[in-house]
């Protein structure tokens, strides 16, 4: 699924990644990396004493075999449509990160509040990886257990 914000962007993925890195540096990041494997992409960065990891699903080429109207797309156009989908996702990510960092700089929010699900804990998992399954358990079982692991042991 492609969002509306950057649906028709012509900005290459590499430029969006570079712009994300530039924004992070501008807001005080001390480290940055990005990568991909199959249909997944990841960026990681360090701000203050927080390491943040954001994973995203990239579109699958097969998602573009049909047009929006359900017609079969020519194979040469499938690749172009897929590339457009990837460009769109990276532009969306840039917008999200910039907005979060701007909210932090303006004093509206904090790094922890804006990036909480993506903050990497000492065990290498993100807060979201710990909490999301427990939220589901709480709703099904009606009981709230400790949401985060005990790192004092």
Description:
- This protein has 153 residues and is an alpha+beta fold.
- It has one domain.
- It is 42% helix and 16% strand.
- It is built from 4 helices and 3 strands.
- It has helices at 13-26, 75-105, 111-115, 127-141, and strands at 29-37, 40-47, 50-57.
- It has a 3-stranded antiparallel sheet with strand order 1-2-3.
- Strand 1 (29-37) and strand 2 (40-47) form a beta hairpin.
- Helix 1 (13-26) packs parallel to helix 2 (75-105).
- The longest helix has 31 residues, at 75-105.
- The protein is globular and about 55 Å long.
- It starts with 12 loop residues before the first helix and ends in a 12-residue tail after the last helix.
- The mean pLDDT is 90.
Quick rundown:
The chain is of the alpha+beta class.
Kindly list the characteristics that best describe this protein.
153 residues; alpha+beta; 4 helices; 3 strands; globular
Number of distinct beta strands? 3
Q: How would you describe the shape?
A: globular
Helix run count: 4
Radius of gyration, Cα only, in angstroms?
A: 18 Å
Distance between the termini: 43 Å
Q: How many domains make up the 3D coordinates?
A: 1
Instruction: Report the biggest beta sheet as strand number plus sense, adding barrel if it closes.
Output: 3 strands, antiparallel
Q: Catalogue the unreliable spans.
A: none
If strands are numbered along the chain, what order do they take across the biggest sheet? Answer: 1-2-3
Structural class call reads: alpha+beta
Helix proportion: 40-55%
Helix-strand string: HEEEHHH
Strand content: 15-25%
What value does the average pLDDT take?
90
């Amino acid at each position: 699924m492609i969002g509306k914000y950057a649906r028709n962007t012509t900005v290459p993925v590499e430029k969006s990644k570079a712009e994300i890195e530039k924004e992070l540096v501008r807001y005080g990041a001390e480290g940055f990396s990005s990568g991909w494997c199959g249909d997944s992409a990841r960026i990681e960065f360090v701000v203050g004493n927080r390491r943040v990891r954001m994973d995203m699903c990239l579109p699958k080429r097969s998602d573009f075999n049909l047009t929006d109207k359900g017609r079969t797309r020519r194979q040469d156009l499938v690749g172009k449509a897929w590339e457009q989908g990837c460009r769109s996702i990276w532009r969306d990510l840039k917008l999200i990160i910039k907005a979060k960092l701007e909210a932090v700089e303006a004093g509206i929010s904090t790094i922890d509040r804006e990036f909480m699900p993506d903050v990497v804990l000492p065990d290498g998992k993100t807060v979201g990886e710990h909490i999301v399954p427990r939220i589901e358990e709480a709703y099904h079982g009606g009981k709230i257990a400790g949401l985060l692991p005990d790192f004092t042991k």
